[in-house]
């Protein structure tokens, strides 16, 4: 629903002006100055509503970006643990028999698997958050501008 649709339907499904009175009930002989003033108020209301929509959309994208970054940071920690385990396995392989280093390699493999999964999830979340432009708001504004242009041609 575009912002203009919201204004049209916010009073029991009937078209309204920005003050909530049914459309078409205004004085039929309104002066040009009054009409310009009304259009200015409506445009101001529309711009404010679009700005609120853009703010909401950017907040959602920011949260996704933050979560994805956190997942990548966690993947880095697990990667570090995997490297430490691999180092331990190499030391154990030299110093001891096969069973000790083999078990260390199994643990390292499990840590690397967790690291890979977390990195893929984090990367996917960051890709969903980009580009940072508020796409839905921009589309809604284009629709509103097209409708305003259409109404001015009538």
Describe the structure.
The chain is mainly α and 154 residues long. The protein has one domain. 79% of the residues lie in helices and 0% in strands. The protein contains four helices and no strands. α2 packs antiparallel against α3. The longest helix is centred in the middle third of the chain and has 64 residues. The chain is rod-shaped, with a radius of gyration of 29 Å. About 5% of the residues have low confidence.
Question: What's the short version?
Answer:
Keywords: Membrane, Transmembrane, Transmembrane helix. The chain is mostly helical and 154 residues long.
Query: Mean of residue pLDDT?
Result: 76
How much of the residues is beta strand, in percent?
Answer: under 5%
Task: Indicate the structural class.
Answer: mainly alpha
Q: Count the domains.
A: 1
Question: Which range best describes the helical content: under 10%, 10-25%, 25-40%, 40-55%, 55-70% or over 70%?
Answer: over 70%
Q: Which H/E pattern describes the elements? A: HHHH
* Largest β-sheet summary: none
Count of helix runs: 4
Globular, elongated, flat, extended or rod-shaped: what is the shape? Answer: rod-shaped
Total strands: 0
- The termini sit apart by 23 Å
Low confidence ranges: 9-16
Radius of gyration: 29 Å
InterPro entries: Phage_holin_3_6
Keywords: Membrane, Transmembrane, Transmembrane helix
Protein name: Phage holin family protein
Notable characteristics:
4 helices; single chain; 154 residues; Phage holin family protein; transmembrane; membrane; mainly alpha
SSE layout:
Layout: H1 3-9, H2 32-95, H3 98-129, H4 135-153
Helix pairs in contact: 2-3, 2-4
């Amino acid at each position: 629903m575009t912002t203009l649709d919201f204004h049209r339907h916010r009073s029991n499904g009937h078209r309204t002006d920005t003050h909530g009175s049914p459309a078409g009930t205004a004085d039929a002989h309104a002066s040009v100055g009054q009409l310009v003033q009304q259009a200015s108020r409506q445009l101001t209301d529309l711009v404010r509503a679009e700005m609120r929509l853009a703010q909401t959309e950017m907040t959602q994208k920011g949260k996704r970006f933050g979560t994805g970054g956190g997942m990548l940071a966690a993947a880095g920690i697990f990667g570090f643990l995997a490297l430490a385990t691999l180092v331990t396995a190499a030391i154990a392989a030299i110093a001891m028999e096969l069973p000790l280093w083999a078990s260390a390699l199994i643990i390292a493999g499990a840590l690397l698997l967790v690291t890979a999964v977390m990195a893929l999830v984090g990367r996917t979340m960051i890709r969903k958050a980009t580009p940072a432009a508020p796409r839905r708001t921009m589309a809604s504004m284009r629709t509103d501008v097209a409708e305003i242009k259409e109404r001015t041609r009538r």
